[in-house]
Amino acid sequence: MSLNITQDFIPAGRRNRPGRANPMNFITIHNTGNANAGAGASNHARYIKGDHAASRPASWHYTVDERDIFQHLPDNEDAFHAGDGAGPGNRQSIGIEIAMNSDRNLLEATDKTAELTAFLCLEHDIPIENIVQHHRWSGKNCPQKIRAGRPYNWAEFISRVRNFMSASKSVSGTPQNITAEELDILERIVWAEARGEDERGQVLVVNVIMNRVNSPSFPNTIRDVVFAPGQFTPITNGAFERATPDAGIHGAVRRALAGADYSRGATFFRAIRGAEGSWHEQALQPLFDHGGHRFYTARAAGTAPSEPQALAVSAITAGSHVRLRVGAVSYDTGGAISAWVFAHAWIVERVEGDRAVIHRRADGSATGTDIRTPVHVKDLILA
Ligand SMILES: [Zn+2]
Fold first, then answer.
1. How far, in Å, is the centroid of ligand 1 from the Cα of 30?
2. How many helices and strands in the chain, by DSSP H and E?
3. pLDDT (tens digit, 9 = 90+) per residue, 40-89?
4. From the CA of 199, how far away is ligand 1's center (Å)?
5. Ligand 1 centroid from CA 32, angstroms
6. Of 284, 278, 289, 344, nearest to 316 (Cα)?
7. From the CA of 31, how far away is ligand 1's center (Å)?
8. Residues of the chain whose pLDDT is less than 50?
């Protein structure tokens, strides 16, 4: 199971989005009370933005069914779900509704809610004792399914939340001590590499970086791993600098640092699109695909085409499409390279140690613009 949260917020200014600061002291669990076929998370996302919900007013933060999680409000805003007026249910808790419609799977929806609850507890430092039933605030028989023992009772629900929390914390052992600068680096690289991926796909990018930090084949700090020459394209194409990590990415990075680890030890990834025939496919051991990315590990000793250290340093090989780094000079003479060469992508003709020769234009355009220039491998960036 993985958390894939769709944010579809109630528009600001609606009567059921009061917008007061929510200190997030509690999490309140509900069942929707709506057993109609089709009344899953996406239907509630539509309902809560409509006039009926606004006029009551009624609102909460998440609706969960066995397939989807929709988030209707930012965690740090208050809502109208607890029936206690200006009390702590409405003003100080995050409200989660578990779908209970007959055409959906109540066990999976409730388990997914337990995982979401664990995630929110870790994200906002909410103690497990402060996960409460709607019943606590107003006496209403809610969450009615859990209170009736379906698919299991409240003690079991809390036990499953606890299990998700400890699984998330323990997977990669000791918590990492992360500086503010390192956190910023991780959030930017996740934005640049995986902003279109789901949360698991974003956690995976952090996992790969931390696996490298912990590997003798790679540098030993987050900064040195991310900024190693030729390793992360966003460092050289500007995406890292212009990154604007949002709350979702912030949460994914926090979750990875709290121990969530789906990587099976992967130390490389690349886009699945274009992977066929790539250096990654030839030199590495594929592990699994997730979203748009394929994850790899170094081949076992003796089967790799070159030393792991060399693999870590450069992905440039004959046939690679590359661009020149700003400031690149001729390998043989140390002399300047014409400015127009920097404006195009080139095909590597051959690599000998740290010397590479770039030859034809990668876009295959007109003759007369081909070159055969020796350059330092460290001055090449995969195009
Ligand atoms: Zn309720």
1. 4
2. 14, 14
3. 999 999 999 999 999 999 999 999 999 889 999 999 999 999 999 999 99
4. 27
5. 7
6. 278
7. 6
8. 1, 170-175, 302-313, 366-368
Residue 247 CA to residue 107 CA, distance in Å, equals 29
Non-local (6+) Cβ contacts of 49 within 8 A are: 8, 10, 11, 14, 72
The pLDDT, as a whole number, for residue 114 is: 96
Phi then psi for residue 47, to 5 deg, are: -60, -45
Q: How far is the CA of 164 from the centre of ligand 1 (A)?
A: 23
Cα-to-centroid distance, 241 and ligand 1 (Å): 44
CA of 58 to the centre of ligand 1 (A): 11
Task: Report CA(217)–ligand 1 centroid distance (Å).
Answer: 52
Question: What is the sign, positive or negative, of the torsion defined by CA atoms of 253, 258, 263, 266?
Answer: positive
Strand order in the sheet with 268-271: 268-271, 293-298, 284-290
CA of 135 to the centre of ligand 1 (A): 7
The Å distance, Cα 81 to ligand 1 centre, comes to: 7
d(CA 260, ligand 1 centre) in Å: 30
Specify whether the CB–CB gap between 60 and 96 falls below 8 A.
Answer: yes
The helix or strand, by DSSP H or E, that contains position 288, with its residue range, turns out to be strand 284-290
Q: From ligand 1's centre to the CA of 40, what distance in Å? A: 15
Q: How far is the CA of 50 from the centre of ligand 1 (A)?
A: 19
pLDDT value of residue 365? 57
pLDDT per position as a tens digit, 177-230: 788 889 999 999 999 999 999 998 999 999 999 999 988 888 889 999 999 888
Strand partners, 69: 5, 64
Residue 134 CA, ligand 1 centroid: distance in Å: 5
Kindly tell me the burial class for residue 173, based on how many C-beta atoms sit within 10 Å of its own C-beta (0-12, 13-18, 19 or more): exposed
**Nearest Cα residue to 114 out of 92, 127, 131, 134:** 131
Side by side, which strands form the sheet with 355-361? 373-376, 355-361, 346-352, 321-324, 380-382
Domains defined along the chain, listed by start: 5-170 (3.40.80.10), 180-313 (1.10.10.2520), 321-382 (no CATH)
Give me ligand 1 centre to Cα 103, in Å.
Answer: 20
Number of C-beta neighbours around residue 13 at 10 A = 8
